[in-house]
Specification:
- This is Cytochrome P450.
- It comes from Nonomuraea ferruginea.
- InterPro entries: Cyt_P450_B (IPR002397), Cyt_P450_sf (IPR036396).
- Belongs to the cytochrome P450 family.
- The chain has helices at 17-27, 33-37, 40-52, 62-67, 69-79, 86-90, 135-152; strands at residues 59-61, 157-158, 163-164, 173-175, 177-179.
- It is mainly α.
- It has a single domain, classed as Cytochrome P450 (Cytochrome p450, Orthogonal Bundle), CATH 1.10.630.10.
- Strands 1-5-2 form a three-stranded antiparallel sheet. A two-stranded antiparallel ribbon has the order 3-4.
- The chain is globular and about 55 Å long.
Length: 180
């Protein structure tokens, strides 16, 4: 990254005190659960567009083809970046499908991905003043992204076993090959 861009890469995560509180107060109203829920149809269209671009009856990777581009495409939609420019923006951002705590004191079978797990609140989005403003949009994206492939392709089937990322702190997929 060019040196002149570095000052602009600072996020609220690196801020504390008055500066963090001031910026949080300015942007928080746009990220309430109610405001985010109103965005669901637009996220649904983005998910449908990503899935619609995939071939039927052939193996596709839902991590590479859906989970990775989705968060940046949603951000682009929020700030008004045209669809034609979004692939370039995907290269500027990094996204993760999600994370889950793996503390065996808090979670039964912490190494198993359990989408219905409801044992304890995890810290994937931090807490207190540093609670992630993007937590509600991220949760909504995950809900839509997990249900849309099943709704669109009731015969969805694994193409082969998913691959995990070598990450001791989270249960992350490197790939999720399926046939739509």
């Amino acid at each position: 990254m060019p040196d002149e861009y570095v000052p602009y890469m600072r996020t609220m995560r690196e801020m504390d005190g008055a500066e963090h509180a001031r910026l949080g107060k300015l942007v928080a109203p746009a990220f309430t659960p109610r405001r985010v829920a109103a965005f669901a149809p637009r996220i649904g269209r983005i998910v449908d567009g990503l899935l619609g671009a995939l071939p039927s009856g052939e193996p596709v990777d839902l991590v590479a083809d859906l989970a990775r581009p989705l968060p940046m495409d949603v951000i682009c939609e929020l700030v008004g970046i045209p669809e034609a420019d979004r692939p370039a923006w995907r290269g500027h951002g990094a996204a993760a499908l999600g994370s889950a705590n793996r503390d065996p004191r808090a979670f039964t079978d912490p190494d198993r991905l359990d989408l219905a797990r409801d044992e304890a609140a995890h810290l994937g989005y931090a807490h207190g003043p540093h609670f992630c403003l993007g937590a509600w949009p991220a949760r909504l994206q995950v809900r839509i992204a997990l249900t849309a492939p099943l709704r669109r392709s009731p015969g969805l089937a694994p193409a082969k076993a998913p691959e995990r990322m070598p990450d001791p702190g989270t249960w992350r997929l490197a790939s999720l090959p399926v046939v739509l």
